[in-house]
Amino acid sequence: MSIARTLDLGRAVDVVILEVKAITLIADYFVIASGTSQRHVKALADRAIEENTWKPIHVEGYELGYWVLLDYGDVVVHIFREAERSFYGLERLWGDAPRVDLEGHSQRP
C-alpha cells in the first residue's frame, strides 16, 4: 500500500495496515500510524496527500493534529499522536482484522 509506505518513509511510528473489508462496510483497509508530535502528525498527513496520486474524499482533525483521518473511500488512514492512538486503541477495536504488511501480504491475527 503506497500510503503506508509514504508514512513509513516520513518516519511514522508503528505503521499498521488492517484488512477490514470482511468485518465492516466502512472501508476495505485501515492504515494506522503515529506521529511523535502534533507537527509530525500534520506533516505525515501532508506527505500522504501530496505524494499519492489519489486525493482524499474527506480530511478530518487536521487543524488540531491529534488524530488526522484521511478518507480515501476504500482506504481510511488514521494518523495519531502516540497518546491518542493508545487511548482510542483502534488495533484492539478491530482486533479480528488481518494485518497486511507493507509489501501487501496478509497476516492473520
Would you identify the CATH architecture? Answer: 2-Layer Sandwich
**Assigned CATH class:** Alpha Beta
Determine the CATH superfamily: Beta Polymerase, domain 2
Global shape: globular
Number of strands: 7
Average pLDDT metric: 91
CATH topology: Beta Polymerase, domain 2
> Sheet bearing the most strands, described?
7 strands, mixed
β content, as a range?
Answer: 25-35%
Q: If strands are numbered along the chain, what order do they take across the biggest sheet?
A: 3-4-5-2-1-6-7
Are there runs of 5+ residues with pLDDT below 50, and where?
Answer: none
What helical percentage do the residues reach? 25-40%
Number of helices: 4
Describe the structure.
With 109 residues, the chain is α+β, with helices and mostly antiparallel strands. The chain has a single domain, classed as Beta Polymerase, domain 2. The chain has four helices and seven strands. A seven-stranded mixed beta sheet has the order 3-4-5-2-1-6-7. β3 and β4 form a beta hairpin. α1 crosses α2. The longest helix is centred in the middle third of the chain and has 13 residues.
